[in-house]
Amino acid sequence: MTDTDRTVSGASIRLDGVVKQYRGQTKPAVQKIDLEIEAGHIVAFVGPSGCGKTTTLKMINRLIEPTEGRLFIGDRDVTGEDPDKLRQSIGYVIQAGGLFPHWSVQKNIGAIPRVLGWDKKRIAERTEYLLDLVGLDADTFRDRLPKDMSGGQQQRVGVARALAADPPVLLMDEPFSAVDPITRVRLQDSLIAIQHEVAKTIVIVTHDFEEATKLGDKVLILSEGGKIEQYATPEEILAKPANAFVEEFIGSGATLAHLTLSRVKDVEHEPVVTARVGDSSQEVIGRARAAGVTWIVVVDEHGKPRSWPSLDEVATNDTVSDYIDPRLPVVAPSSTLNDALDVMLAASQGGVVVTDGRGVVTGSLTIKTVMSVVRGQLDEAREGDGHVSYTQHAEGSAT
Ligand SMILES: Nc1ncnc2c1ncn2[C@@H]1O[C@H](COP(=O)(O)OP(=O)(O)OP(=O)(O)O)[C@@H](O)[C@H]1O
Ligand SMILES: [Mg+2]
Prior knowledge:
Elements: E1 13-20, E2 30-37, E3 42-46, H1 53-60, E4 68-73, E5 76-77, H2 83-88, E6 90-94, H3 105-109, H4 111-115, H5 120-133, H6 138-141, H7 151-162, E7 169-173, H8 181-198, E8 201-205, H9 209-215, E9 218-223, E10 227-232, H10 234-239, H11 244-250, H12 258-261, E11 274-276, H13 281-291, E12 297-299, E13 305-307, H14 311-315, E14 330-331, H15 337-347, E15 351-355, E16 361-366, H16 367-383
Parallel strand pairs: 3-8, 3-9, 6-7, 7-8, 11-12, 14-15
Antiparallel strand pairs: 1-2, 1-4, 4-5, 9-10, 12-13, 15-16
Helix pairs in contact: 5-7
The structure holds adenosine-5'-triphosphate (ATP) and magnesium ion.
Magnesium ion (MG) is lined by residues 53-54, 205.
């Protein structure tokens, strides 16, 4: 995404010689780290377990106090700032959302705005906006308790809550590690779409190099003791791993890395025939036959997919019936081809439904298309110098 076509509301982050030495430890958990994160960018921290990702992240909002060094948000030196005040300008999302279990969705989202003294009406309006932003229906979810929601829904509320007071910085610690693969792809794609709208500065910790390359404008690879091994764009890391550690860390995945760097929006889609609940089955079947397809996508009033019955299934009723298929494989333009394959495998299907950034059905993608892209790129890699050339995925919009 280019910085010229959007208003960046995020602030830069700078760590200047920051060290963390836990009490009683002989070696620092994070050795002297110098790091600059550009305003409006997403940076992903990756590295083996125990290398200091969480420690580094939590020093940014001072949930962990640095032993040495200085910390800047924008031009502000926040090293000595009141930590409670600092945290009002830094959203924080943890695994499974970290919601207060006895509070409704609305109360959870309003937590920081209430501290800031917002009135009820403003909090209610903000809640409504944020639920829509994260893809949840406000009327359905406003008064729910976390226990009555799925993990993915809780995670969405966690993101909404972190954005409540419109902080310039969002910190996320393995936010998507507790959900199934299909939900994870959807949440990642939502985050990309949300970021396109709000343009915050986001730091996300993950175990998963693929997730890092999908989400990060830049990826920070750490080794034990918080040592920076490489800090670069995903393309640069894959094309030129800085050293043996990085090479080992990205591992054999690198040969198929173009699956992570190629996005659904970069490849050709097949058209789909859509129908609304209650449409005449005969009419829909007629349209599908004319288009030469053997299945259709049933959409709701917003054009979002609900199910994808075969024509035989459609023919069993006079009108298109209402049914939500919870395993419906769906990908967005920002999904990687690897995601598309994962989703197909998880759903045991040879294709996926493609939506735009807002979840409206735009077409479908088959395993045949994905495989032919892979084959073409592997051939290209073999003919060339061994490096696959990547298309710049950071350009253009997420929708
Ligand atoms: N409160 C603490 N006291 C002492 N040592 C700690 C404390 N918290 C973390 N550590 C140590 O600091 C190092 C870095 O931990 P950290 O949680 O930052 O790693 P991580 O990269 O987030 O790991 P993971 O991927 O497993 O979440 C580890 O060796 C850990 O044992
Ligand atoms: Mg951690």
